[in-house]
Amino acid sequence: MRITFMGTAASEGLPGAFCQCRDCMEARKLGGRELRSRSQILVNEDLLVDMGPETYWKSVLYGIELSRVKYLFVTHSHSDHLDEKLLGFRGGWFGKEMVEPVLKAYGNEQAVEKMAKRLSDCAFDFVKEATVCHVIHEFDRVQAGEYEVTALPAVHSPDEECLLYLIRDEKGNSFLYATDTGRLTEETYEYLKGRRLDCVIMDCTLGNKPDVGISHMGLKENLVIKERLMKLGVTDQNTRFLCTHISHGTGGYEYLSGEAKKLGIEVAYDGMQVEWGCGR
Fold first, then answer.
1. pLDDT digits (tens, 9 = 90+) for 32-42
2. Are residues 8 and 1 in contact, defined by beta-carbon separation less than 8 angstroms?
3. pLDDT exceeding 90 applies to what percent of the chain?
């Protein structure tokens, strides 16, 4: 299984468009891993988690053929995670000779409503037919080709049912994608008992700040999750723990990665790939 981090920033991106703070000014100066677009990942070449405003540009930058994506799973409807306008360019003369003629998209009611409206507003039938949307809820399990995807509850917005995703392939490789959330719920820990995770990707909007996150996390909360999962036997010394959804005000990549390393956690960056073998 291979995960490509197409973006690793919080909603404002890094640097923030109008921000002059030290982190944003340094990011503009240094470039490289200091530059972050809005968070999303690609699993292998055919499953996308979130489709934010930089999806098109990042696909060009990283040589990703979006027409190969069969499945889209959206964590929630916020605009940094779902830019539904892109769906209007699937099929017909916009997207000729696509590898996958139909994209299967999954998300909560608000996310599906946004996508469905974009499709229904389009004048072209070929666009409407190129994406099929499905509403899913907490603890729903979807068989998406070789992937078993389970939606788990996120602690993020009181206005909608935000989701995390547990993704497992047919070879037994599995990971948890837990961004835009506070600490995991007890129901989530209970669900994960008896399972085995090769990789855990966590929200780290707050970086190394001492603040206690409610709808987001920092390294402090990441460590709590890591220790709890290790204690439950869901993870072990071979599991990779990574953090994403990084905001400005967190000290920059070099600083944050140094602090995270002390906890056995890696800081993801745009373009980073994580790959592991054939399961256990």
1. 999 999 999 99
2. no
3. 95
Residues 139, 119, 53, 272, Cα dihedral to 10°: 50
Q: Is residue 280 part of a domain?
A: no
As separate numbers, helices (DSSP H) first and strands (DSSP E) second, the chain gives 7, 14
How many whole angstroms from its chain centre is CA 247? 15
- Single out the residue of 2, 1, 28 nearest to residue 14, CA to CA: 28
CB proximity list for 178: less than 8 A, separation 6 or greater: 152, 154, 164, 184, 200, 201, 202, 203, 225
For residue 240, the cross-strand partners are: 199
Q: What is the CATH number of the domain that holds 171?
A: 3.60.15.10
The reply to whether 262 falls in a domain is yes
Tell me how far apart the alpha carbons of residues 23 and 28 are, in angstroms, rounded to a whole number: 9
Across residues 17-29, what is the average pLDDT? 97
Count of C-beta atoms within a 10 Å radius of residue 275: 11
The tokens for 81 are 């995670």
Residues 254 and 146: their CA atoms lie apart, in Å, by: 37
Distance of alpha carbon 276 from alpha carbon 12, whole angstroms: 31
CA distance linking residue 135 with residue 106, whole number of Å:
6
Which residue type occupies 176? L
φ and ψ of 135, to 5 deg: -80, 135
On the question of pLDDT at 233 being above 90, the answer is: yes
Write out the two tokens for 127: 């666009």
Residue 20 in domain:
yes
- The one-letter amino acid code at 44 reads N
Residue 278 above 70 pLDDT?
A: no
Domain region containing 50: 2-275
Confirm if 265 and 256 have CB atoms less than 8 A apart: no
Question: What is the number of domains present in the chain?
Answer: 1
Whether 26 is in a domain gets the answer: yes
Assess contact for 226 and 263: CB atoms under 8 A.
Answer: yes
